[in-house]
Structures are given as C-alpha cells and as structure tokens.
From TrEMBL:
It is found in: Membrane. This is V-type proton ATPase subunit a. GO terms for biological process: vacuolar acidification. It is a multi-pass membrane protein. The chain crosses the membrane at residues 431-455, 476-493, 556-574, 586-609, 645-663, 764-785. Signal peptide: none annotated. Belongs to the V-ATPase 116 kDa subunit family. Residues 102-136 form a coiled coil. The keyword Ion transport applies. Keywords: Coiled coil, Hydrogen ion transport, Ion transport, Membrane, Transmembrane, Transmembrane helix, Transport. GO terms for cellular component: vacuolar proton-transporting V-type ATPase, V0 domain.
C-alpha cells in the first residue's frame, strides 16, 4: 500500500480524471495536535462545533475508569440522570420544553451542577409530600365510603330489629301459640344483659377478590361470622398502589377474639383496607363531618402542592434545552479528552486523528481561537503526519444526494478515494426502478405523495415520525426521482393506469374497412408515419400486444444491463489508473471488457441491427450455435455481411481473455514481491528514531510472506466469478422485463376486471363499490407492494450486477467529533 499523502497531492493536481465532489472521497490527512491542558477543553469545544476532525483513541489499553477525565464523565452522567428525571416529570405534568433557552447566555458548568442538585432535591421533596398527602386523601375518601355504606347496613339492621321487637310484644299481648318464641329467646330479646355482644370489622376489598374473600372468611371461622357487602358505584384510587380499582365496602360480624385475629389476617392477605367504625349513629354523623372537613383541607393543600410543583417544572422547562445541550456536549468533550494521551510533563495533551485536507485552515483557526479565549500562554501545535494507514472515507453530501449515498453505503463503505457508485446511482437507480414501474399515472401518484413530504420537510424534520414514515421522509428525493422517471417510462410504454392515450399525435394504424372496429392488428393497416414517441396506442388490446411488448422489453433489458455492466468495468479502469495499479488495468480491465463484449456486447449489437433492419433472424439460434457450431453457415439468420467471421473472432477473444485474467497477475505479483525484497537487502543506515520507526512500519507491511498459492486461488475464484457472473448477471437484468410485464398486467386486470366490469352493470352502488375496490387495489398492490418490489430489484441490480465490477466497499466511514451529530443521534 502506497503513501496516502502522495495520493492526495496527485488528486489535488487533477489526477487522471476531472475532480467531482462525489466521484472520489475527500482527501484526508493524519494530524497530530499538541494542546496545553488549560486550553484543551475549549479546543475540543471549538472542534466539536466545527465537526471536521475524527479523533483516534490513544488510550485503548486503558479501561474507562483508569482514564484522566473519568470523574468528569461520571458527573455528566449524574446530571444527565437528573435531566431525565425532569423530562419525565414534565411529561407527566404535560409541560413542554421551551425554546427560549436557546437565546440565553452560556452558564457555568459547575453552577449548573449545583443548580440541578438543588432542583432535584426540591422536586423530590415536593413529590414526596404530594404522595403522602395524596395517600391520606385517598384513605379519607375510602373512609367516607365506609362510613356511608356501613352506616346504611346498621341503620337497616336497627330498623329491622325494632320492627321485630314490636312484633314480639304484640304477640305476647295476644294468646300464646306454637309459633311463639321460646322462653330463652324471649328473655334474650327483652333483657339486654343476656344478649351476646358481636364484634365487627369494616373496610374495602377489591371487587374481583370479593367472592374469594367471602369463601375464605366462611371456612376460616367455620361459618361463625356474618358478612355484608355493597359495591361502590365508581372505581376508587387505592391509597397503596395509586391505581383505580373497583371495590366493595364490607362489614364482618364475628364473636370471639380468635375469630377476630383470623379475620384481620385474611383482610391483610386480600389487600383489604380496614377503617374504624362505630354503631352509634350520633358518633357516625360526627365522624362523617370530621372526615369531610379533612378531605376539603387536604384537597386544598394538594392543589397548592401541585401548583408549586408545576411552577418548579415550568422554570426548569425554560432552561431545559440549554442544560441538556450543555450536559451532552460536556460529556462528549470529556469522553473525547479521554482519548488523548498526556505528555510526559503532564502539561500537554496529544491528540491524533483524521481531518479533510480542505479543513486544515479551519482547524488551525479553531486552535488559535481556543488559545486566545482560554488565555493560554502556549499555543497548540498542528502537525501533519505521514502514514501508510488507510484513511476514512468522507463524502460531502446534501439533503438530495445523502439518500443515494446511503443506498451505496448500505452495501459497504467505499475504500478511500475509490470510484463512488453514488454518482451514477442518482440517475441509474431511479431509471431502472422506472423501467419496472413504467406507468405515468402511478408515477404521478408517487410524485404527489413525495411533493407533500418535500413541501413540508421543515415541519416534518422537527417532528418524531414512525419507523416507516421516517424511512420514507429520509428517502423523499429518491422517491421523487423514481416518480419522475416512472412518468417518463410510462409515457414511453403509453400507459396511464394501463390505458393508452394518443398524446403525441394520432396512431400510425387504422382500420382497413369500417367493419374492423373491434378487429385486432390483422385488420389494421399503416396509414401514416410511425407514432412519434413511445409505443403506438393501437398495440394495446391487440392479439399481438403481449408478444410485441415481451420482445421489446426483453431486448431493452439486455441492452440496459450490458451498458451498466460495461460502465462498471470502465470504472474499474479509472480506479486502477487513479491508484497507479497497472496490473489491474492490463490483466483485469482489458480481458473483462473483451470477454463481456465478445458475448453480450455482440448480442446487444445484433439486437440493434435487427431493430434497424427489420430482419426476422432468430437471435436465440445465432447465439447458441455461435458456441455449438461456430463454423456453420448462418443462412436466413445472417444480419450483415461478415457476421460469421466476426463471430469466430469474438469467440476466440472470449476464450483468450479467460487465461489472460487468470495467470499473468499472480505471476507478476510474485515477481514484484521478489524484486522489492531483493532491492532492500542492502540499505542505508539511519540514525534517527523516527527513521527506525518508519523502517519497523515498513517491515511490517513489506516483509510479510508472499503465499503464491493463496494469491493464485484468489485470482482463480475472481476469474470464475466474473466468467459465470457475466452470464448470470446479464440474465439477472431480465427482471426488468419480468417486473415491467407483471406491473402492466396487474394494472390492466384491475382496470378491466374491476372498474370496467362495475361500469357495465349500470348501477350506481355497484359502480361506487367498484371504484373503491379499484382505488384500494391500486394503492395497496401497485403503489405500495409493487413499488417496494421494484425498489428491491433495482437495489439488487446495483449492489450485485453493477458494483461488483469495480467497487470494493471495504473502507470505513469518517466519524468526526461533532455536536451536530450528537443531537441527531439523540433524536
């Protein structure tokens, strides 16, 4: 691998091809920056604002806790936790972040840490008090329900007992009978001292547990209890869990302390909240009055507490964005400072990293400003290093080109300064999509949907969208290009929701006589010049429509495929020329170009000649017998004079190009390796440490063992892959024909079998149903499923058939230290 600094110089002079923003990645340089400790923080802050420097971790052997600024990162993490707490509390209170903080002055980091601690303590205290008050308030609400419902139980029981007592007295005045109560029962009813005193427990139990609660009580007391329950009309907030639960008020009557102990344990097990109650009606009224007063007081206190909490959160919301940005940037700065190594004197920090060459003056300006603003006595040192390490890949993209570049990057990041497929993807990707999706009606629907996203992009970019919507919004310009090309190919196919129009003039065909109104092309004659643009509308609906369009689209797919594969091979030449790799030029580019065009380039030529001459030659027969019987006469399949001789020459060239790709390159690589080692047997003795380091690095790259067998096997695999791939990749482009045909036929089926069929019933209801079904089928199948299908097929053609001809994609992306990227990652 050569010195990348020399490569940058060559590119700056123009290189082998004109400079393009996206054709080659930006020229990068490895930089060392020596920064005084007192200005290090401000320096990284300015570099983070600039966003054009990627730091290397010089402390990779240290754990996060052993690094210099571990405590500061811990402080930032603690402040980030407090801010998350504030965000959660504001979300619960329905308070939005305010943008006012963006206009405020910068605050001190230490002061903010103290301020956040005070606000957290105050907020936690307010929340704790509010929780206690809310719990007491909920308990009092439950107590009020118990007092009312249980009071109704006792009132009804007392009324029943009074009525029974009067009945007994009335019976005693009359004659005795067999229904009269026994003597003991009479004594108990008339003499209060002989009545059994029953205890009772009152409270609330969850309604869903009421039946099980009653059964367990009955079994535990062996039936020696009496339970009364009444459902509460509305769910109540449980004081312990804070959730709304449907509950029943209950009163359990029992006799004996053992029964009481059992009942209390069962109440605890079922989560029943017990409340004291008295059977004295006067005391009941007094308790209701007291509880009602407490509820009113607590409600007022809670409202004041919530108002105080909301005021705290509103004050926080005004500065939340500023605090959040400051904590995020400070944490990023200290995390990056931990990647820097301390100088021996511990007065300077040493940073190494990658930056674009064009950013040199901007970085130096940022270093000077940091030195001046931090009042440092010593300035920072900016030093460009020579290295054999492969730099990161950096493309300057905008909102239009970024989505196309992401399509390429999903396959693999470009190697440093290799030809970028993204330049051609901007045109070829939407065009190949449109070849499969050709219908200008569907294309207009896609375009309208995309224009809505583009016109509202400022509003939508600041909102949080769903996963699918986010993906569509990010690729809005890709979809726009796909829609525009679909309109273009739809005009060529002359299909508007599968319906042809005479947009560019009248059809070249007409009926031979008045009786051929419904006839096919057998009854049509050519009466004027050919239709000026696209497919003649008379072809649609004829018996020969499918064979004609099949032949047209199949041959067009082969032409497009061969053209794009040739473009890929030509780009491999520019890569070899740019990297000064003559072996790839002579033993990869040339034989590949010869092999592909000897077979499929020749097939493309035959297709064009057949179209131009109107010949009836069978191209299948020509291509098959070119291999099976190359010396036989072509007969009626001959398209031009000298075709047989040309076929023999092309076949011979194709056969020669295979060993041309396979053998010379491994042999020459071994020869170069041996010459390089032989020339380094005797070298000049260097005295400086830097020279020794360079030699060690040189040894690590150049004195590796050269395994000829591995190189040869690799070249063999590459040759076989290309030879077989030339056939399979060309066949793969036939998906353009297949998908285009499927889209056209589906569109035709929906139009004829749904819309026209509904129209033929002469019924408005059926017509409305038909229109609804047609619209849903068009949107669901043709505009969603077919769009996704064509997109994926176009993606495969670019990744596999096009990019494998020249694109290595084994680089790594430039990841600069940038505050703007931090904000995007958080969003």
């Amino acid at each position: 691998m050569g010195d990348y600094r020399g490569l940058n110089v060559r590119r700056d002079r123009g290189g082998c091809c004109p400079p393009m923003d996206l054709m080659r990645s930006e020229a990068m340089q490895l930089v060392r920056i020596i920064v005084p400790v007192e200005s290090a923080h401000l320096t990284l802050s300015y570099l983070g604002d600039l966003g054009l420097f990627q730091f290397k971790d010089l402390n990779a052997d240290k754990s996060p806790f052993q690094r210099t600024y571990a405590n500061q990162i811990k402080r930032c993490g603690e402040m980030a936790r407090k801010l998350r707490l504030f965000r959660e509390q504001m979300a619960k209170a329905g308070i939005a972040h305010s943008e006012m903080a963006m206009t405020q002055t910068r605050i001190d980091f230490d002061e903010m840490e103290i301020k956040l601690g005070e606000l957290e303590a105050e907020l936690i205290e307010v929340n704790s008090n509010n929780e206690k008050l809310q719990r007491s308030y909920n308990e009092l609400l439950e107590y009020m329900l118990v007092l009312k419902k249980a009071g109704e139980f006792f009132y009804s029981a007392q009324s029943s007992a009074t009525a029974q007592h009067r009945e007994i007295e009335a019976r005693q005045i009359g004659d005795g009978s067999i229904d009269s109560p026994l003597l003991l029962e009479q004594e108990m009813l008339t003499d209060p001292s002989k009545q059994v005193k029953l205890g009772f427990v009152s409270g609330l139990v969850p309604k869903e547990k009421a039946m099980a609660f009653e059964r367990i009580l009955f079994r535990a007391t062996r039936g020696n209890m009496y339970l009364r329950q009444a459902a509460v009309d509305d769910p109540v907030i449980d004081p312990i869990s804070g959730e709304k639960i449907a509950k029943n008020v209950f009163v359990v009557f029992y006799s004996g302390e053992r029964a009481k102990t059992k009942i209390l344990k069962i109440c605890e097990a079922f989560g029943a909240n017990r409340y004291p109650f008295t059977d004295d009606i006067g005391k009941q009224m007094q308790m209701i009055s007291e509880v009602s007063g407490k509820i009113t007081e607590l409600k007022t206190t809670i409202d004041l507490g919530m108002l105080h909490r909301d005021n705290i959160l509103k004050n926080i919301s005004y500065q939340f964005e500023q605090w959040n940005n400051l904590v995020r940037t400070e944490k990023a700065i200290y995390h990056t400072l931990n990647m820097l190594s301390l100088d021996v004197t511990k007065k300077c920090l040493v940073a190494e990293g990658w930056s674009p060459v064009f950013a040199t003056s901007q970085i130096q300006d940022a270093l000077q400003r940091a030195t001046y603003d931090s009042n440092s006595q010593v300035g920072s040192i900016f030093q460009v290093l020579h290295t054999k390490e492969s730099p990161p890949t950096y493309f300057q993209t905008n909102k239009f080109t970024s989505a196309f570049q992401e399509i390429v990057d999903a396959y693999g990041i470009a190697k440093y300064q290799e030809a970028n497929p993204g330049v051609y993807t901007i045109i070829t990707f939407p065009f190949l999509f449109a070849v499969m999706f050709g219908d200008w009606g569907h294309g207009m629907c896609l375009l309208l949907a995309t224009l809505m996203l583009i016109f509202r992009e400022k509003k939508l970019s600041s909102q949080k969208l769903g996963d699918i919507m986010e993906m569509m919004f990010g690729g809005r310009y890709v979809i726009m290009m796909m829609a525009l090309f679909s309109i273009y190919t739809g005009l060529i196919y002359n299909e508007f929701f599968s319906v042809p129009f005479e947009m560019f003039g009248r059809s070249a065909y007409a009926c031979r006589d008045p009786s051929c109104r419904d006839a096919t092309t057998d009854g049509l004659v050519k009466v004027r010049e050919a239709y000026p643009f696209g497919v003649d509308p008379k072809w649609h609906g004829s018996r020969t429509e499918l064979p004609f369009l099949n032949s047209l689209k199949m041959k067009m797919s082969i032409l497009l495929g061969v053209a794009q594969m040739n473009l890929g091979i030509i780009l491999s030449y520019f890569n070899a020329k740019f990297f000064s790799n003559s072996l790839n030029t002579w033993y990869q580019f040339i034989p590949q170009l010869i092999f592909l065009n000897s077979l499929f380039g020749y097939l493309s030529l035959l297709i064009i000649v057949k179209w131009c001459t109107g010949s009836q030659a069978d191209l299948y027969h020509v291509m098959i017998y070119m291999f099976l019987s190359p010396t036989d006469d072509l007969g009626e399949n001959q398209l031009f004079p000298g075709q047989k001789t040309l076929q023999l020459v092309l076949l011979l060239l194709a056969l020669i190009s295979v060993p041309w790709m396979l053998f010379p390159k491994p042999i020459l690589l071994r020869k170069q390796h041996n010459e390089r080692h032989q020339g380094q047997s005797y070298t000049v003795i260097h005295n400086t440490e830097e020279s020794l380091e360079i030699e060690e690095d040189h040894d690590s790259h150049d004195h590796e063992e050269f395994e000829f067998s591995e190189v040869f096997v690799h070249q063999l695999i590459h040759t076989i892959e290309f030879v077989l791939g030339a056939v399979s990749n060309t066949a793969s482009y036939l998906r353009l024909w297949a998908l285009s045909l499927a889209h056209s036929e589906l569109s035709s089926v929906f139009y004829e079998k749904v819309l026209l069929l509904a129209w033929g019933f002469n019924n408005i209801a059926i017509l409305i149903i038909g229109i609804v079904v047609f619209v849903c089928a068009t949107i669901g199948v043709l505009l969603v499923m077919e769009t996704l299908s064509a997109f994926l097929h176009a993606l495969r053609l670019h990744w596999v058939e096009f990019q494998n001809k020249f694109y290595e994609g084994d680089g790594y992306k430039f990841a600069p230290f940038s505050f703007a990227l931090l904000a995007d990652e958080e969003d």
